[in-house]
Amino acid sequence: MKHLVLIGFMASGKSTLASSLSHSLSLPIFSSDTWISKQCGISIAEIFSLYGEREFREWEKRAFERIFEFEESYIIDCGGGFVLQNDVRRLGRVYYLQVGLDEIERRLSVGEESVKRPLSKEIKTLYIQREKLYQAQASKVVDNQKEGAIQEIIEDWRRS
After folding, report:
1. Mean pLDDT by 10 residues, the chain (160 residues)
2. Is the pTM of this model over 0.90?
């Protein structure tokens, strides 16, 4: 099954864009973080706090395997670190939502975002490390700071 896969750093707009794409393309959404949180019965921040990042990454592996059970195409909203151990290219067409570090920091400093992201204290280091992984796994890089990113993805998806 071929899925529309969204990857990118935390606060890059994956969940927001997934919702808009779902409406425009009439595809259901699978959010790895939402699935993990429901399976565990607690928030992602609580999983990190109680069990650590290692346990969370194990749950990401389970979420990845779960996607292969789908019988129809989905929009896959991957958590920011989903690409650390999963080859998301196996899932379908991968869109890397690229957002500059300054904008990520700005988004994470606003309201609840500043406290609910478990790895937000290590932003610059994580951003630099993950940028290469996002680039390597992307079928297409989309600048999610410019107008028209959603339309760019829709047009590319329909052509693919």
Report:
1. 93 96 98 97 94 95 96 96 92 97 86 52 85 96 95 96
2. yes
